[in-house]
Design goal:
The chain is mainly alpha-helical. The protein has one domain: Rhopdopsin 7-helix transmembrane proteins, CATH 1.20.1070. 75% of the residues lie in helices and 3% in strands. A two-stranded antiparallel sheet has the order 1-2. α1 packs antiparallel against α2, α2 runs antiparallel to α9 and α4 packs antiparallel against α6. The chain starts with a helix and ends with a helix. The C terminus is likely disordered. InterPro entries: GPCR_opsins (IPR050125), GPCR_Rhodpsn (IPR000276), GPCR_Rhodpsn_7TM (IPR017452), Opsin (IPR001760), Retinal_BS (IPR027430).
């Protein structure tokens, strides 16, 4: 089920966001990149299914390394891409006139997210620092967090900070600044309306802003799901390195690893539920899904504004 949902959902996201003219914006480049990381995560699932039936890691050491590399690239990639999406939402909504990222800027940030996953994927793969090993029921692989030596403890602490704490810090900062900007904007509108003795001051720019806010809510939902999916696994790794290893039974280490994979199949369906223009495209191209989305009146504002800006540039 996870494999089917992830492949169908993420392939639809990549296909529609890449080929639809109204959705081909700089901001949505991050969504496509996140979907690619999700598909990489899904590539682990066939290996896990076969390993579960044969009751060992298929491919032995080579298979273990392949499985762990896929998990490392996708997990860290999802984390830093969520941070990039938070930065993009903050820039777009807080500075709607001159804060939007253009395609070149978005491409540079996406390239950074792909380079971000390299150090803690290559180093344990080459056994320069850390190593990949089996975990749980010995049918999946990840980095070693159970070896009782100082080198392993330092490695686990560094990868925890690099792949979890730093992206989480960026995300919390940008979303908190975004909420602060929204509150200040609403306060300014209320004060101005009060001075002019009118009920509200809602302009076309504010309507566009509301569209961006809805997209920000989708991005925040995906971040929240990522947090729920990866926090148990991060906790298990820290317990393995620094805590009481007796509590880490095979079941206790296997369940967080499985739960972490669930985020790759949930992400694309969050867009299907919450993104009106994406649902409209799905309705046009995938009639078999039975989607009935009414035509939106203001959802194209963001894309049009970005198009005008790029034309002027």
């Amino acid at each position: 089920m996870l494999l089917a949902m992830s492949c169908v959902g993420n392939c639809c996201v990549i296909w529609i966001f890449s080929t639809s003219k109204s959705l081909r914006t700089a901001s949505n480049m991050f969504i496509v990149s996140l979907a690619i990381f999700d598909i990489i995560m899904a590539l682990e699932i066939p290996m896990f299914i076969v390993s579960s039936f044969v009751e060992r890691m298929i491919g032995w050491e080579i298979g273990c390394d392949i499985y762990a590399v896929l998990g490392s690239v996708s997990g860290m990639g999802q984390a830093i891409t969520n941070a990039a999406i938070a930065f993009d939402r903050y820039r777009t909504i807080s500075c709607p006139i001159d804060g939007r990222l253009n395609s070149k800027q978005a491409a540079v940030i996406i390239a950074i997210t792909w380079f971000w996953v390299t150090p803690f994927t290559v180093l344990p793969l080459l056994k320069v620092w850390g190593r990949f090993t089996t975990e749980g029921f010995l049918t999946t692989c990840s980095f070693d967090f159970l070896t009782d030596d100082q080198d392993t403890k330092v490695f686990v602490m560094c990868i925890f900070i690099w792949s979890y704490v730093i992206p989480l810090t960026f995300i919390v900062y940008f979303y908190s600044q975004l909420l602060k900007s929204i509150r200040n904007h609403e306060k300014m509108l209320r004060e101005q309306a009060k001075k002019m003795n009118v009920k509200s001051l809602v302009s076309n720019q504010d309507k566009e802003r509301s569209v961006e806010l809805r997209i920000a809510k989708v991005a925040f939902t995906i971040f929240f799901l990522f947090l729920l999916a990866w926090t148990p696994y991060a906790t298990v790794a820290m317990i393995g390195a620094f805590g009481n290893r007796e509590v880490l039974t095979p079941v206790a280490t296997m369940l967080p690893a499985l739960f972490a994979k669930s985020v790759s199949c949930i992400d694309p369906w969050i867009y299907a539920i919450n993104h009106p223009r994406y649902r409209q495209e799905l309705q046009k191209r995938c009639k078999w899904m039975g989607i009935h989305e009414p035509e939106a009146t203001h959802d194209s504002a963001s894309a049009q504004t970005e198009k005008i800006k790029s034309d002027e540039a």
